[in-house]
Amino acid sequence: MALSGLEATVDLGGVRKTISIALVPEAQLEDYVIVHVGHAIGLIDPQEARLTLELFAELGARSAAQSPA
Predict the structure, then answer these.
(1) pTM of the entire structure?
(2) CATH code that applies to domain 2-66
(3) How far apart are the C-alpha atoms of 25 and 60, rounded to whole Å?
(4) Residue 29 CB coordination number (10 Å)
């Protein structure tokens, strides 16, 4: 995450997007935030974020393996 005033550039699964952090002004570089429609709406614990991202990756892999060719 790169900070600039009340905006930040975040990585959303490999896609970089500028979002508002006005609702979470305490967000710092390297924090994990929950993003909804272009706004950070909360901070999330780094360990919880990593576990969630791992689950999303696993679900994506399973979905891709089950999709017909």
Answers:
(1) 0.77
(2) 2.30.30.140
(3) 32
(4) 8
Residue 53 CA to residue 55 CA, distance in Å, equals 5
Q: Where are the domains of the chain?
A: 2-66
Q: Which 3 state secondary structure label does DSSP give 68?
A: coil
CA 23 → CA 1, 47, 66, distances in Å?
16, 22, 39
Q: Give the pLDDT of the chain (69 residues) as one tens digit per residue.
A: 677 889 999 998 889 999 999 999 999 999 999 999 999 999 999 999 999 999 989 998 888 888 776
Q: Record the tokens describing residue 11, joined without a space.
A: 């990585």
Query: What is the signed CA dihedral for 52, 1, 34, 14, rounded to 10 degrees?
Result: -50
Give which of 29, 27, 55, 53 is closest to 40, Cα–Cα: 27
